[in-house]
């Protein structure tokens, strides 16, 4: 058992920070930033996801309760709800999208197994609707009393890993979202019943 580092700190050692820094430089994500960098933001949001936080208030409260550990977890100093909300709103989302696809590519290469043998690559395409609060996300209204977005996902069967994610308004049908898929040569597509109707 490693007593020198927190589990979260051990997990983030697997992230290729040099690749992330290169992407940040590409989009000038840390321009004029003194304290709370894109890397700090990534780690804070990952911690929130892994610890099942429900909101930014919930997340910053738990970080504040363990403020003496924040530096060792890579959060930087003084993570406030207003600061976190501001960077989530203003920073270039393509930084995190590009890094996510880089990590997906690494995971796909590591997860290939030979039990499912079909010539070429086999993918499944489906979507799920994520409900949102209508009074907060008024721009995502899709019926009289509901708001939501739809996450269309291309899933590689051989590796058990999603390879492409496209987020739209909830009313967008899968067939329209399929136009955005970056098709690969030799691809075989499995569609769900909902996608076809």
Rounded mean pLDDT is 84
Principal-axes geometry comes out as: globular
Q: How many E-type strands?
A: 5
The radius of gyration is 19 Å
Structural class: alpha+beta
Order of helices and strands: HHHHHHEEEEHEH
Describe the structure.
By secondary structure, this protein is an alpha+beta fold. Helix content is 39%, strand content 20%. The protein contains 8 helices and 5 strands; from the N terminus they run H-H-H-H-H-H-E-E-E-E-H-E-H. The protein has helices spanning 7-12, 17-27, 38-50, 56-65, 81-90, 93-111, 174-177, 193-196, and strands spanning 121-132, 141-143, 146-156, 161-169, 187-191. Strands 1, 2, 3, 4 and 5 form a 5-stranded mixed β-sheet that branches. Helix 2 runs antiparallel to helix 6 (93-111). It is globular and about 50 Å long. 14% of the residues are buried. The mean pLDDT is 84.
Give me a quick take on this structure.
The chain has 197 residues and is α+β, with helices and mostly antiparallel strands. Helix content is 39%, strand content 20%.
Secondary-structure blueprint of this entry?
Elements: H1 7-12, H2 17-27, H3 38-50, H4 56-65, H5 81-90, H6 93-111, E1 121-132, E2 141-143, E3 146-156, E4 161-169, H7 174-177, E5 187-191, H8 193-196
Parallel strand pairs: 1-5
Antiparallel strand pairs: 1-3, 2-3, 3-4
Helix pairs in contact: 2-6
Keywords:
20% strand; 197 residues; five-stranded mixed sheet; alpha+beta; single chain; 8 helices
């Amino acid at each position: 058992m490693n007593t020198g580092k927190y589990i979260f700190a051990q997990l983030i050692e697997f992230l290729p920070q040099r690749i992330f820094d290169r992407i940040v430089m590409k989009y000038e994500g840390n321009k004029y930033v003194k304290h709370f960098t894109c890397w700090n933001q990534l780690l804070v949001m990952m911690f929130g996801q892994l610890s099942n936080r429900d909101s930014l208030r919930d997340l910053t409260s738990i970080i504040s309760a363990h403020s003496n550990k924040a530096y060792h977890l890579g959060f930087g100093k003084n993570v406030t709800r207003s600061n976190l909300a501001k960077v989530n709103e203003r920073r270039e989302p393509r930084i995190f999208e590009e890094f996510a696809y880089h990590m997906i590519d690494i995971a796909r290469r590591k997860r290939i197994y030979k039990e499912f043998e079909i010539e070429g690559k086999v993918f499944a395409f489906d979507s799920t609707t994520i409900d949102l609060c209508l009074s907060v996300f008024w721009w995502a209204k899709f019926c009289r009393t509901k708001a939501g977005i739809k996450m269309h996902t291309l899933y590689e069967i051989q590796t058990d890993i999603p390879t492409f994610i496209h987020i739209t308004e909830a009313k967008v049908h899968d067939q329209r979202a399929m136009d955005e898929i970056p098709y690969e040569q030799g691809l075989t597509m499995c569609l769900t019943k909902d996608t076809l109707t």
